[in-house]
Specification:
With about 350 residues, the protein is α+β, with helices and mostly antiparallel strands. It has eight helices and 16 strands. An eight-stranded antiparallel sheet has the order 1-2-16-15-14-3-13-12, with helices on both faces. A hairpin with a 2-residue loop joins strand 15 (about 325-335) and strand 16. The chain is elongated, with a radius of gyration of 23 Å. The two termini are about 15 Å apart.
């Protein structure tokens, strides 16, 4: 299902909604990556914000389980390098060829030249004048014939291929491009999925600044919580949209969802929805967790598994946002899961 939201002019952002039931058993080491909600989380490898919302009675158990599941603190590094530095020396051999690192360069997606490295695939997102100087094969993205929107090009290179080594013509061309065209020093975010991210190893030569991501925990007392029905039909657009709106306002800490809210209806006409047949609501104490930094999908998946486990037959929600502008929201109630995936 696709919710009809967005602007009247230009390509509208899409909000895809998917309903599914959780399996009776989930292997934490190998969750079902091809099924929602795990598929949606995995498809967002470079996240910057992750929110979890659940009843306060589960907060202590959730905090303890997350600390146990994540054997090392969530840390990433900010480092200044040229693209050529990524493709040469110990950094390339240890991190790119045989390691498992994530890299994201500075730049505004769709505006500036941006580079990323995920699963050994180097992605170059560049404007047309830059692309014409690269000498590398890519594909056109964006633009789509719209006025005042410049076409952009994406080049994707699998650096783990056996042919991507010094002396091979294709790789030498990539090195030439990095040395003569994309030769500016950039700020990069670095995450080593196989390491401790403490600034040691080949990255130490580039003087990284290590940052630790700790959750911000906010208790929300007296929240008007709609009674979520056991099933939401795919044609129930209004209930689906109202559920997403309530989750978004609650994660924002809006006073509109609180029992004590006395706002003048002339200023705000919002009211907490009644999603089930009898129109019932409950007053619950909730806890909101937020991680903000450089968050790979592997970390988000572990946090989702912890939230699913501690919530049991109760409800929980998780929302994630990525650097490319995409985001998702997951609502689990009992064994039923509704996933909203927003693509700009």
């Amino acid at each position: 299902m696709v919710l009809d939201i967005g602007k009247d002019s230009g390509p509208s952002p899409k909000c895809y909604v998917h309903h599914t039931d959780l399996p009776n058993y989930i292997d934490n080491a190998h969750p079902p990556a091809k099924k929602d909600p795990f598929r949606t989380v995995i498809e967002q490898p470079l996240g910057h914000t992750l929110d979890v919302l659940l009843p306060s009675k589960h907060a202590e158990a959730f905090t303890s389980l997350v600390a146990t599941t994540l054997s090392t603190p969530i840390r990433y590094a900010k480092v200044y390098m040229k693209l050529h530095d990524v493709l040469t020396g110990e950094f390339f051999n240890d991190y790119v060829k045989s390691g498992h690192v994530l890299l994201l360069s500075e730049g505004r997606p769709g505006i500036d030249n941006c580079f990323s490295l995920v699963e050994g695939v180097l992605r170059l997102d560049v404007e047309k004048p830059t692309y014409e100087r690269l000498g590398l094969e890519g594909k056109a993205v964006g633009g789509m014939g719209r006025k005042h929107v410049k076409a952009r090009y994406v080049v994707e290179l699998n650096l783990r291929l056996p042919s991507m080594v010094r002396g091979k013509r294709g790789f030498e061309r990539v090195l030439w491009t990095a040395k003569n065209v994309l030769d500016h020093s950039l700020a990069w975010l670095f995450y080593d999925l196989n390491g401790s991210n403490d600034g040691s190893g080949p990255i130490a030569a580039h003087s990284p600044v290590v940052r630790e991501v700790k959750p911000t925990i906010t208790p929300l007392a007296g929240v008007r919580t709609p009674a979520v029905p056991d099933t939401i039909g795919e044609d129930d657009d209004e209930e689906i949209a109202e559920s997403l709106e309530w989750l978004t306002l609650t994660m924002m800490g809006s006073p509109r969802v609180l029992e004590t809210d006395k706002v003048d209806p002339y200023l705000c006409r919002y009211s907490v929805p009644t999603l089930n047949a009898d129109g019932s609501q409950t007053i619950q104490d909730l806890t909101h967790f937020r991680w903000h930094g450089f968050l790979p999908s592997q970390v988000s998946t572990k946090i989702l598994l912890a939230a699913l486990k501690v919530s049991g037959d109760d409800w929980m929600a998780m929302s994630g946002s990525a650097f490319d502008g995409n985001s998702y929201t997951i609502l689990k109630h009992g064994k039923t899961v509704t996933t909203w995936k927003y693509s700009d």
